[in-house]
Write a structure and sequence with these properties.
Elements: H1 3-17, H2 25-35, E1 41-43, E2 48-50, H3 65-68, E3 76-84, E4 87-98, E5 105-108, H4 111-116, H5 121-126, H6 139-142, E6 147-151, E7 156-160, E8 185-199, E9 204-218, E10 221-232, E11 235-250, E12 255-263, E13 273-281, E14 297-301, E15 305-311, E16 314-321, E17 324-328, E18 340-345, E19 351-356, E20 370-379, E21 390-401, E22 404-413, E23 416-427, E24 430-443, E25 446-461, E26 466-475, H7 483-493, H8 497-502, E27 514-525, E28 534-544, E29 549-561, E30 564-574, H9 578-581, E31 586-597, E32 606-614, E33 619-629, E34 632-643, E35 649-659, E36 662-671, E37 674-688, E38 691-695, E39 702-708, E40 729-732, E41 741-744, E42 754-756, E43 760-763, E44 770-788, E45 800-803, E46 808-811, E47 817-823, E48 828-835, E49 838-845, E50 856-861, E51 866-867
Parallel strand pairs: 3-7, 39-44, 44-50
Antiparallel strand pairs: 1-2, 3-4, 4-5, 6-7, 8-9, 8-37, 9-10, 10-11, 11-12, 12-13, 13-20, 14-17, 15-16, 15-18, 18-19, 20-21, 21-22, 22-23, 23-24, 24-25, 25-26, 26-27, 27-28, 28-29, 29-30, 30-31, 31-32, 32-33, 33-34, 34-35, 35-36, 36-37, 37-38, 39-40, 41-43, 42-44, 44-47, 45-46, 45-48, 48-49, ...
Length: 895
């Protein structure tokens, strides 16, 4: 195989991975010249070698035998992608050194690296193969039939390891010994939504909602608080602390412990807010576990609207949306059950309310797995001052077989008990579970006992790309009570004014308690690769013992034709809150939306048209364009004009920016006799030992990246807009707990005079932790040395170049050039150049650096050549070679 072909692929792979910093045009030419050399393999003694005669075309000796004979790599430290049995396990700096037994340069494995690639080091210790005083192991010496092959064109290290020698844990599992509690810090996550409405009658209305999620991490403990600050015209500003709690891992039980105010999380009972203590299994600590479930909320806005989502009367989500269809996919509901009330507030003040069903999936766990939750605390009312009874709650699920799960639970408070049992079965047609609950409620000497059955079904049909779930429940008689029902009825019976007026039916026989409920979700892709589009259906139907009902549903179809995308949808809500307010409400909305790109390019602006028609009303229409600025992809805009359902004109415009310090959007709307402006801003403030950083909105678990010495504006790879601040820290807004998260720095936008010590680092944070990844950086001056021998000929290809301080600078290319990064202290010195059995020294002094110069070119000529000493000093430990481009240095170890 021609080496030039390999080198071309190798350089392409490096560029595609972003591992090589942007280099000047001259350096690119250097690579091109180097890759023009063809080297063919010829048989050697016991191994393959290379015919170096092809390298004598310039009339000069080529010192490449040590580079090419017998190995595809020189000793050093290489940044490679590691694949274990064809599975990517990470990107690491790996030491390659000469194996004394074979004389070949091979990968050197430390015990930590063996663990990271999934090899069972416990078994190796028991066999006495791992020694405390050794940090370099050869894979074939440790494990029979194992091997490590370096694919130099792809910068890839392929490991072949018998399955018996790998850890028994399943895919995605990370040993608890490497779970990281992170650094101590404090943070505030904020979400600000503010709007100012002005009508033609000189009336103005202002409303502001500030959502806060605050946290403090100290060791293994996490302190959290969720609060909101609301204000509106004519109403006093109100601060609400929704809940405050302490949380930590209980590793031995694979569980979480909560102390304070939070929500129960039972698969059998409705979630309630409480103040007390709770401990529950954390499935994220186990391999291949479910990572939780949250519904997708769909709707349609007629203007720059505000969408508010409440659960148990608490605001859990708020966002401004542009006109047209919207989807909310980043919702984090509290507890495992409890409807979501969605309010769409249009720019003219109109409100539309719909209810979104939310319930847990079928009762299924893996064979032999036990999941549990246990709670003891004080019930927290959602409305006003009332009873706060102490209650206990517990449930468990056990996987009896791979297809059968058993579940049971108990809930008890003063005057109330509930017992639940259920089972889940995995069948060919999907997972289905059935559970039954018996309740006993006693209020002022009156006892009521009732039963409820609940059926849950879920199935994803891979062959047809169909996703369906059904949740159906029925109270067998009107006396069934949940814990919340019991507490509210007790409050009403004791004369609490709010409950007596708002829940008049709680004390009656024929009451507004739920009788039946049906939740259905269906998503279907049509044809191969969605050739014929996709459809979805999401519906909920509630019926009560007083013959009232509440239902809502949404359905839609979406597809694309060439560059045109279109969507047709319908939403319906009826009698949404009849069980509480005894009010009737019915609304049906039909929507049609179209969008297509305006022009070509990578991310062209999108033109869209939205039309909607409400029940009993006229049709509204909006047309607009959205996009990002060509000069800055982090700045987005939207301009819309249209006609309202009343026939009058309306319009809106917005501009937003997503940066490393947060996100902000400004909006303006106008319509029939009103004008409205809006502001949405979200982000985070993180205070830690290294200073204070502004950041994008944080998820539950996140990470810090530190560059030392401190360096500002270094981008973090794979996280748009995230870069280091003046203190050298960057906040990575999300990370997956108990899983390997690979963090790296991007060469894009980095100065050519900067190098980072490690390409990627792995962090495994615990839930709620902020893991720290530290990268060492070096900076200086990029210098290209053009080297000549005393007779005026170029230094031979493959000659090694070392600084007099012992640092390896590089290997000469076919034109005798070496591109190196010198530190700020290395402005002068002496170079030692070695080839064949010869060496020479030459002194250098760097001139003043010119502004805007990427690198400095210097020509140097040796004065004398001396033989290489017969008995050289022992070879030093492998060095990282400071070079911007892996040499042609092609096989030069890179940093």
């Amino acid at each position: 195989m021609l080496l030039s072909t390999c080198l071309c692929f190798w350089i392409d792979a490096i560029a595609a991975d972003g591992l090589v910093k942007a280099v000047p045009e001259a350096d690119t030419q250097l690579i091109a010249n180097a890759t023009a050399v063809d080297i063919t393999r010829t048989p050697g003694r016991g191994h393959e070698g290379y015919n170096v005669a092809f390298l004598y075309g310039m009339g000069q000796s080529a010192d490449v035998k040590t580079l090419l004979m017998g190995s595809d790599v020189l000793p050093g430290i290489y940044r490679v992608d590691i694949y274990a049995n064809n599975t990517l396990v990470g990107r690491q700096d790996v030491v390659f050194s000469e194996n004394p037994k074979s004389g070949e340069v091979e990968a050197c494995f430390s015990e930590d690296l063996l663990k990271q690639v999934g090899i069972n080091t416990v078994a190796l210790h028991s066999e006495g193969k791992l020694k405390a005083d050794t940090d370099c192991y050869r894979l074939p010496d440790l494990i029979d039939q194992a091997g490590a092959v370096y694919d130099s064109p792809r910068l890839r290290l392929n490991l072949s390891v018998p399955q018996a020698a790998m850890t028994r844990e399943r895919r995605g599992y990370v040993d608890p010994s490497v779970w990281d509690s992170g650094v101590s810090l404090g943070f505030v996550n904020y979400n600000l939504n503010s709007r100012y409405d002005y009508s033609s009658s000189n009336e103005s209305r202002q409303s502001t909602n500030l959502g806060l999620r605050m946290g403090l991490n100290v060791g293994d403990w996490r302190l959290r608080n969720n609060s909101s600050q609301t204000s509106s015209t004519g109403q006093p500003s109100k601060f609400t602390s929704q809940n405050t709690y302490l949380q930590r891992d209980i590793t031995g039980l694979k569980s979480q412990l909560w102390l304070g105010e939070t929500y129960t999380n039972s698969p059998l009972f409705d979630g309630v807010r409480f103040r007390g203590v709770q401990m529950a299994s954390d499935e994220g600590m186990s391999p291949d576990s479910e990572q939780g479930y949250a519904p997708v909320i769909r709707g349609n806005a007629e203007s720059n609207a505000t969408v508010e989502v409440r659960q148990n009367n608490y605001l859990i989500y708020s966002a401004n949306v542009s006109p047209g269809p919207f989807e909310i996919t980043d919702l984090s509901p509290s507890g495992s059950n409890g409807d979501l009330e969605v309010t769409i507030i249009e720019a003219d003040g109109r409100r539309r309310v719909m209810r979104q069903a939310f319930s847990s999936p079928p009762l299924m766990v893996r064979e032999g797995r036990l999941l549990y939750d246990a709670t003891l605390g004080e019930f927290q009312q959602d409305y006003g001052s009332s009873e706060r009874p102490v209650f206990a709650n517990g449930s468990m699920m056990y996987g009896l077989t791979s297809d059968l799960t058993l579940a049971s639970g108990l809930q008890a408070a003063s005057g109330f008990q509930a017992y639940s049992m259920g089972a889940g079965i995995n069948t060919r047609i999907g997972a289905v579970s059935l559970d039954g609950t018996q309740s006993h409620s006693s209020i002022e000497g009156t006892s009521k006992a009732g039963q409820r059955l609940r059926l849950r079904y879920a199935k994803f049909i891979e062959s047809t790309n169909t996703n369906v779930s059904v949740n159906a429940q029925r109270s067998l008689n009107e006396n069934f009570r949940s814990l919340s029902d019991h507490v509210y009825a007790s409050s009403a019976a004791q004369g609490h004014a709010w409950y007596s007026s708002e829940f008049p039916d709680y004390s009656s026989t024929s009451s507004a308690y739920s009788r039946t409920r049906l939740d259905v979700y269906l998503a279907q892709n049509l044809g191969k690769d969605n050739r014929f589009g996709s459809v979805y259906l999401n519906g909920s139907d509630d019926r009560y013992w007083n013959n009232s009902s509440s239902r809502s549903y949404s359905a839609g179809y979406s597809n694309s034709w060439r560059s045109l995308s279109y969507n047709v949808g319908v939403t319906h809500a009826q009698n949404v809150s009849s069980s509480v307010y005894n009010s009737r409400y019915s609304d049906t909305t039909l929507t049609l939306s179209l969008s297509f790109p305006l022009g070509g390019g990578e991310r062209p602006p999108q033109v869209f048209m939205n039309s909607s028609r409400q029940q009993g009303g006229d049709t509204s229409l909006q047309t607009g364009v959205t996009g990002t600025l060509p000069s800055d992809r982090d700045v987005n805009y939207s301009v819309v004009a249209g006609r309202g359902a009343d026939g009058t004109g309306n319009g809106s415009a917005s501009v937003g920016s997503n940066t490393s310090v947060g996100n902000m959007t400004l909006g303006y709307s106008y319509g029939n006799q009103y004008h409205s402006t809006s502001l949405q801003a979200n982000g985070a403030i993180v205070a830690h030992a290294g200073g204070v950083n502004l950041a994008q909105p944080l998820s539950e678990t996140f990470a810090l990246v530190k560059v030392e010495p401190r360096m500002a504006d270094v981008p973090v790879a794979s996280y748009s807009g995230v870069k280091t601040g003046a203190n050298g820290y960057a906040v990575v807004p999300n990370a997956t707990p108990y899983r390997a998260n690979w963090l790296g720095l991007s060469a894009n936008g980095m100065s050519p005079d900067v190098e980072i010590d490690t390409a990627m680092q792995q962090v495994v944070p615990r839930r709620g932790a902020a893991a720290l990844a530290t990268f060492k950086s070096s900076s200086g001056r990029r210098v290209q040395f053009e080297l000549f021998r005393p007779d005026g000929k170029l230094m031979p290809f493959g000659a090694t170049v070392d600084h007099d301080d012992g640092q390896r600078l590089g290997i000469a290319d076919p034109r005798g050039r070496v591109l190196a990064l010198l530190s700020d202290e290395q402005t002068s010195g002496e170079l030692l150049i070695s080839w064949d059995n010869n060496q020479c020294r030459v002194r250098f002094a760097l001139p003043e650096k010119k502004a805007g110069e990427n690198y400095q070119s210097i020509s140097l000529k040796c004065n004398a050549v001396t033989p290489t000493p017969d008995k050289p000093a022992p070879a030093p430990a492998p060095k990282k070679i400071k070079s911007a481009v892996p040499s042609i240095a092609f096989y030069q170890p890179r940093q």
